[in-house]
């Protein structure tokens, strides 16, 4: 029997610490991102999400700890490594007189030397403009684009080189609902069809729930939860709420086993059960509970909330 060799994670972080002067922001961060995963990093304002991402991008030197991204220490990585990593920064402010088509064509040229037969780079500019929904604005000056359209361009700039690993820091801030939905489709497309590994930060918990294979919650300088949205929700908020109506009267019952409870309910009352509703605790309930637990000084057991 052959034993599967576990694949190297695309991101490996151990004991990451970061201080700005006397202010200790990260006090020992540990996590992995595996190939093809979409991982969401959540945490309150000032928790250190951007700091963590900037360390992984090689833009910031950590105070201590071991960090490997695509098998390399980002602080020592060269252009060949950078060509494999996509970064969506806060907002593209330069080149206001250029058009999206010209900018993407120019930036794409940087990646061409790193193209291989198995991984051609960059993406075709017309395909990318269409994919991020900028075809109609392709030849307008960037300075005249609306904020949301500019953000779409930021995303295009981040992925033009067909990255194996993509970092997105609050990518949908300022998006209208349609742009947000289009962006979610794009993330699924990159992950499912292109195999791109993605690490993103967001304050939108519905977005995290929708996109993430795995969620990390950063609070008090550490990762306090690591698991799928479902696993985190089950562990922290525990119960589901079952509501139904019987002979005109309303009932509510909290249970850890909604499926067997509902089965019993039907065994007992059959079709007389009306308006049945099962509500699981949401990721938002979980997130707020976990951050509150942390702030109250209760450290959750990480191994218990893992997938
Ligand atoms: N260059 C810097 N010099 C000093 N302090 C900094 C610097 N950059 C960030 N900080 C501080 O580090 C802490 C973490 O900041 P960071 O931007 O990483 O948090 P965040 O989790 O991304 O926050 P938000 O959700 O508000 O974007 C904050 O208290 C911030 O003020």
Describe what this molecule looks like in 3D.
Its main location: membrane. It is found in: Cell membrane. It comes from Geodermatophilus africanus. With 307 residues, the chain is an alpha/beta fold. The chain has 2 domains: 11-230, 3-Layer(aba) Sandwich (Rossmann fold), CATH 3.40.50.300; 239-280. Helix content is 35%, strand content 26%. The chain contains 11 helices and 12 strands. The protein has helices at residues 49-57, 79-82, 100-111, 125-131, 147-159, 177-194, 205-211, 229-237, 258-269, 283-295, 302-305, and strands spanning 11-20, 23-33, 38-42, 64-69, 85-88, 165-169, 197-201, 214-219, 222-227, 240-246, 249-255, 273-280. It has a 6-stranded mixed sheet, with helices on both faces. Helix 6 (177-194) links the parallel strand 6 (165-169) and strand 7 (197-201). Helix 8 packs across helix 10. The longest helix is centred in the middle third of the chain and has 18 residues, at 177-194. Residues 302-307 have low confidence and may be disordered. The chain binds adenosine-5'-triphosphate.
